[in-house]
Amino acid sequence: MRKYVIGRLLQLILILLIITFLSFGMMRLAGSDAILQKMENTGMVVSQDMIDAARAELGLDKPFLTQYFVWLGNLLHGDMGTSYISGQEVFPAFISKLPATLLLTVVSIVLTIVISIPLGVLAAVKQNQWVDYLMRGISFLGNSMPNFFVPLLLMYIFAIRLGWLPVISRNVSLQNVILPAVTLAIAMSAKYLRQVRATVLDELNKDYKDYVIGAKARGIRFSVTLTKSVLRACLVTVLTLLTLSIGSLLGGTAIVESIFMWDGVGKLAVDAINMRDYPMIQAYVMWMAIIYVCVNLVTDLSYRVLDPRIRLGGAKG
Fold first, then answer.
1. Residue ranges of the ABC transmembrane type-1 domain (predicted)?
2. Residue 158 has pLDDT above 80, yes or no
């Protein structure tokens, strides 16, 4: 186990280094000039000497590899640079957006679990009955709706027509997070409901004679067998789905955050891309990389706890 964890950590460190190089290179090959973009935003007429001086001040006049190693060295010391647009340090500005994203992530995941898992299990247990057809129809409808349509529909009904919730998010609070969280939960639940249903059905059909009928013969209720045996065997698949969603949500959902003006890292990334704010974009890329690397590691380590049949690193039981 220890050998596997160390090997995975070394592998993930290498992956992060490769991501830093690729992201830094793509920023420099993007085909646009951050200095010119900044000058255009100010509306000032500047000379070529001023542009060259601004490039030299930001270190953009140095060779690519020199820029990369300087940036990587600063990054390892906790310095992500200074925003080209606001002139503020990137790390504090980025950290200030995390509470909003964390709140949105937690509420969305809780709603997704509450909706998708019970309905998916119900659809599997009631296979080919009217309840199953209804759940599959709801899932199909949820998957068919575009990402931008659901938030606009919810905003129109609950904010504009009924006036129960604010149209846009003015601050980070439970009242303001309801609409964006429900929007994300609807999209994820529609997808995961069918996957939970398929996983439970596969487990029931695969091992039905082994323990479901045996438990029924011993007088154990089907609900007990379902919760303690079948669902536990399905936890690996469910955990994988949820952890991938957590990684995506922690990275911010640009469309939803932009529509509701939710002040999280997703909206911050969209603004940085529009303004060609390369240090902020690189901070966001690194944040996403670290999230997915950590989430994948935690997921792999959790498999052994949830399913003893899995042996990490090829160890034999």
1. 98-299
2. yes
pLDDT at 233: 64
The length of the chain in residues reads: 317
Q: Residue 194 belongs to a domain with what CATH number?
A: 1.10.3720.10
Segments in the chain forming alpha helices (H): 2-28, 34-42, 48-58, 64-76, 90-95, 98-125, 130-144, 149-154, 174-206, 213-217, 222-225, 231-250, 254-260, 265-274, 278-306
For residues 24 and 148, state if they share a domain: no
What is the average per-residue pLDDT within 59-81? 77
Residues 150 and 285 in one domain: no
pTM here is 0.72
Same domain, 161 and 125: yes
Non-local CB neighbours of 2 within 8 Å, separated by 6+ positions: none
Q: Give the rounded percent of residues in the chain with a pLDDT score beyond 90.
A: 0
Query: Among 8-17, 118-127, 186-195, 293-302, which is the least confidently predicted range?
Result: 293-302
Same domain membership, residue 103 and residue 7: no
List the domain range (segments joined by +) for residue 156: 98-232+254-263
Structure tokens that stand for 261 in this block: 């003006």
The half-sphere exposure of 183 on its side-chain side, counting CA atoms within 13 A, is: 29
